[in-house]
Specification:
mainly alpha, Tetracycline Repressor, domain 2, 70% helix, globular
Amino acid sequence: MNLTNGLKKAMRGNPVTLPDNPVEGGVAFPFRAVPELVKFHLSLYIALSAMAGHVLAAGRFSLDSLTLGGLTLLLSCGSAVLNNIQDRVWDQDAERTRDRVLVKHSNMLSRAAVLAALLIFSGLSGLLWIAGGMPFLLGAAALGLYNGLYTPLKKITLWAMVPGILCGMIPPAMGWTAVAQGMSASDVSGLWIVMAALGFWQLPHYLLISLRHPDADAGMPERPGFNTIWSHEEIRWQILIWTGVFSLSMTLFQVKGWIASPGLSLCHMAVAVMLPIAMGVMLVPSGSARRTGICLAMINLSMLVFLGIAVLDRI
C-alpha cells in the first residue's frame, strides 16, 4: 500500500513523504522512494516515445516494440536517479524540491547510486544486445546530454535547455533505428515530426513549471530561470506561443498521413485544435498556481494522447 501511494504521488510529480527515522518502515522504506527517484511519470513518456518511433518504422505494434520501450524505460529511470544524486545539494534551496528523498535522507545516497548504476547498465546493455548498435549509441548520447551537460549546466545558464531538449528528442530515433527497414526507409517524416513535437512540447512544459514555482521571486535571483528575465505575463505568452507550435506539429503529423484510423484521427485533431484554445482561456486572465497546474496537466495529457495514438493506430 505504501508503494502504491508513493507511485501515485510520483505520477503527479509530488515528493514522496518518508519517515525522518531512516530505520522506520523496515524493508519497505527504500521502495517507497523509488517512484520519485526514477521520475516515473516522465520516464513513462520517454519509453512511450521510443515505442512510438519503433511502431512508426515497423508499421505495426509488436513484442519488439514493447521490449524497446521497456529497455528505454530502464535507461531513463537510471538517468533520473543519477540526476537526483547530482541535484541533491542544489535541491535544498528551492521550495519545490527541498522535500525530495535524497535531500531529506542522505543515508539513501549509496543505495540510490547502486540503483542508478544497475538501471543504466541494464538499459544500455539491453539496447546493445537486443536492439542493436545504433539504439545503444543514441541511448548513450541521451544519457550524456542529460546527466553530462544539462544537469550541471542548468545551475549556470539557461542555455542548458538546449542539451535538455535534444535529449528529450532522441528516444523516438532509438525506436526507429531498432527496426531494420527504418534505417533505409524512404519516408522518415513521421520520425522527424515526432522528434520536433517532443522538442516543442518541452518548452511550454518547462515554462509552466517555472510559472508555477517562481524560485526567483522567492529570494533566489542567482538561479538561472525564466523568472529572472521575463515577467509572469511574458512567460504566459511564451507558453501560448510554444503550445501553438506544438499543436501545429501534431497537425502536420496527421496531414502527412501518419494516422490511418478515422476515429483516432478525429481524436488527435480535436486535441491539436483545442489545446491552445484551452491554454489561452486558462492563462490569459491569470497565471495563478491553480490555473498553471491545470495547464501543466493539459500539456502533459496532450503529449500522452499524441504518442498513444501513434502506437494505437498500428495495433
